[in-house]
## 1
Amino acid sequence: MDIILASGSPRRRELLSRAQLDFTVMSVDIDETPHTNESPKDYIERMVATKAAAAVQQLNVNSREENVDKDVEPRLVLTADTIGVLADGKTVLVKPTSREQAYEMWQQMSDTVHEVWTAVQVTLIARSAHLVPCDNAAAHATAAHALKQPVWQVVSQQQLTERTAVTFIPLTAQMMREYWDSGEPQDKAGGYGIQGLGAAWVSRINGSYTNVVGLPLAQTLALINTVSQHSSASVS
Ligand SMILES: Cc1cn([C@H]2C[C@H](O)[C@@H](COP(=O)(O)OP(=O)(O)OP(=O)(O)O)O2)c(=O)[nH]c1=O
């Protein structure tokens, strides 16, 4: 079954490639701002679901260009989201947008344990031709107000969340300054990359390494398998 990795993360692309699966990649752009007092669980589950919904919407925009009668196999859309969670179990660490925000996060992570959570959603979608309202005013005037267009619809979806405990060494002001200047922290949850220079800050991890990098590979492959198996039962 065709797999679409709906992610702009080069780390996720690289990790999924290691499974030697065929997949295509599309980027989705959503607002990743946490809601006030939103729990890490609620936030991360909302993120992967919103990324999946945005991907399906984008596929539907693209399929307007395609032939309605063309047969298309069901597909799997894979979305993921990674956050850091402080030991209080409440504070969500996303990507730092400024040096000051990064320093504030790192001060809280220094010489202590935090967790990295990655949520993964696998969404099974199938396409069929449906009557959809036409947004063309002239067509409305002639009462031809519906068009037959192929629409991707969600058949089923499943999520998992994997957690890994990460211990940081004590961080000095100079270490933080140099690390921010390296440019590595800016696009990473918690403001560090364990696969890069950030490895020097990590004294220990407990759990999946690939989960910290952005995609718990073994668990993701198992989820893809589960949802694919369900698909033969639910899509005829
Ligand atoms: C903690 C940690 C995070 N990260 C990365 C993984 C994710 O790419 C990123 C967290 O941001 P995400 O919002 O999960 O992902 P993204 O914006 O990179 O990609 P997309 O939303 O399009 O799927 O942080 C590392 O690369 N190494 C690390 O050690």
## 2
Amino acid sequence: MKLQLALDRLSREECFRILEETKASVDIIEVGTGVIKEYGMEIVRQVRARYPDKTIVADMKTCDAGKHEAKQAFDAGADITTVMAFSGDLTITDTLRVAKEHGSRIMIDLLEVDKAERVEELVGLGVDLVSLHVGKDKQQEGSFDTGLFALVKDHDIEVTVAGGINADTLPDIIEGKPNTVIVGSAITKAKSPREAAVQLKELLSQG
Ligand SMILES: O=C([C@H](O)CO)[C@H](O)[C@H](O)COP(=O)(O)O
């Protein structure tokens, strides 16, 4: 199981400090939506330049103008870019096509999706990587809900999970056997991001 570090609500300097501290434990670097909004695609280019061997996700949360936004992410050096599940089917297929042309991938963010039918449709469109996600705002009512695994149980696709995940909640989540666990705040807001990442990575290795 891989560990994906989400860099959200951080300055450029904080992003690079935390990356340096945690790089040994982190498999995938996610440049968060808010960080991209603050610094533009340039921050993705800078992360790529500094970490040429890491897998990089640009959390673009695209929902329209898919071809253009996917190209922006891949041209900046991302290996994977995110597209919202509620987007029109043409946005999904356009972004999948751009990803194929670039030898890259699309991760579909299932934020607020509660019907397995949408997942079925997405898989029918060619989607092979999704994120089960409890959003930052919704986390006021509770963090990642393992009930979300039901959405993907009938499909042979790669699954990532996100939403306020930490060392206390991780053991239950591991039971669902996701391919990748995305962690933001539990690492970036920790007193020692390095120690937090080491602990989470250890739990994932045991899982
Ligand atoms: O995608 C995310 C969220 O929508 C903010 O942009 C986060 O990267 C994701 O939820 C992981 O962060 P934490 O919830 O802080 O672990």
